[in-house]
Amino acid sequence: MNSALLVNIFRFIIFLTIQIVIFNNMNFLGYISPYPYILYIILYPVNSNRSGLIISSFLLGLTMDMFCNSGGVHAAACVILAYYRPYIFKFSFGLSYEYQTIKLNESLTPERFSFILVSVLLHHIVLFILEAFQFKYIWDILLRTLFSSVFTILTSIIIIYLIKPNKR
Amino acid sequence: MQQIFNFIIRNSNRLLFLLLLGISLALTIQSHSFHKSRIVSSANFISGGVYEKINNVNEYLSLRTENDELILENARLKSLLFSIEDTTKAPMIDSLKGVKPADIIVSKVIHNTYNTHENYITLNSGVKEGVKQDMGVINSLGIIGIVDKTSANYSTVVSILNMESHINAKIKKSNHFGSLTWNGKSTGFVQLVDVPRLASIKKGDTIVTGGQSEIFPEGINIGTVEKMYTQDKTSFYVIDVKLFNDMTNLGHVYIIKSKDREELINLEKKEKK
User: Fold this and answer.
1) Spatial contact of B134 and B215, defined as CB atoms under 8 Å apart
2) Which of A150, B34, B45, B197 is spaced 20 to 30 Å from B235 by Cα?
3) Helices marked H in B11-124 — which ranges?
């Protein structure tokens, strides 16, 4: 049992709890709710076991589905985000990301912001497409993706700086 | 053989990804086909228990509105007791046609969604109290939905704010039937479709449940007509119905056991043979 594993399990439970207890009850304008639980996938250590990330993301999404009565929508979105995370890293931080020590919870540089932005957009568009499941609602899907992403990014950044204040 | 193993080891992440994606997509597709039993639902021990805990806290925050509703209901019951004519419009649970008080299970909403296209409600009574699939759920103002899945202590309800739900309804005055659906836009309005254009309808007419469904008894309030229009090239009205219920704020509900239901279904089965 190393400490990284413990930290991940702790984050898994904490993010799920705050999502279910607090953020699932937030409905701006009736249909916009933030989903900051995907911070678990975003903050997962860069060079850790990749299959572990994919499996735990699936479980994370499945638990969300259980609480939201939504079939497998969250599970699918989370697995896709977990699988494409290295590509988003490559996109945001450049090719040599594996050799750098990327710490997301430090000061907000454009690279870090773009990483969070792309991750959240990918997750939300998959989530809302699968939730509506019909292409006649495409405008509805895009609108929901846009607004929910804005709120998710805002809450995510706030949470990141609440968990780990900058040590100087 | 060696090559197959090498292939699996080299692509383990991709295969794992595809497997899990396949599972979740299968669950998604399955959940979109209505009334096939969903595998993952909140009517289980873990999520039901958690929701009950959360609801215990939330109840304190809504004590005031709950009290107001109780005062209203008390006033109505008192007016009944003194046989003064009832002026409130709420339907009387104890006077529904064909339903005895023993056929009603009182339950409590412990979780409620209304921000997706397919909304579900979780109740804190299940098989132990006698809740079964396809029972109707109402409260003192009107209908709420239909029981979907049950476990020992909890059950999920397909809310009327669910685009897959179709409930038989009629116009109180004229007995024209239609089907009650939701277009996914506003939580205050549902749509009554397939009403023939011949029907004379005015704004403000009351819509109640029809007798064609085995789930709800006839004549439970749903809402009032807000707007009606025709969809092009059909001879049917689409009616926007303003709900009596505020679906975003639900407390105690009643689950109706319909005794005639099994008899009806058996009869229809015989007819088909």
Assistant:
1) yes
2) B34
3) 12-32, 45-61, 63-81
Contact (Cβ atoms closer than 8 angstroms) between residue B212 and residue B167:
no
**Is the CA virtual torsion B69, B72, B78, B84 positive or negative?**
negative
> Which pLDDT score is estimated for B89?
45
Domain total of chain B:
2
Give the mean pLDDT of A40-49: 81
* d(CA B39, nearest CA chain A) in Å: 8
Pick the CATH number of A3-163 from 3.30.1380, 2.60.40, 1.10.1760, 3.40.50: 1.10.1760
Q: What is the mean pLDDT of residues B4-23?
A: 83
Residues B142 and B268 in one domain: yes
- CB atoms under 10 Å from CB of A40, counted, come to 22
pTM exceeds 0.90: no
Give the residue on B whose Cα is nearest the Cα of A50.
B13
Predicted-complex ipTM score = 0.76
User: What average pLDDT does this structure show over B244-269?
Assistant: 78
Q: What is the mean pLDDT of residues B237-261?
A: 81
pLDDT of residue B166: 84
Q: Which residue of B has its CA nearest to A49?
A: B13
Element (H, E) at B208: strand B206-209
Same domain, B170 and B210: yes
CA distance, residue B72 to nearest chain A CA (Å): 27
The three-class DSSP label of residue B213 is coil
Contacts of A67 in chain B (CB under 8 A): 42, 47, 50-51, 111
Residue B150 has pLDDT above 70, yes or no: yes
With 0-12 CB in 10 A as exposed, 13-18 as middle and 19+ as buried, what is B214?
A: middle
Neighbour tally for B253: CB within 10 Å = 22
- Of the candidates A119, A122, A15, the one whose C-alpha atom is nearest the C-alpha of residue A67 is A15
Contacts of A48 in chain B (CB under 8 A): none
Task: State the Cα–Cα distance between residues B47 and B53, nearest whole angstrom.
Answer: 10
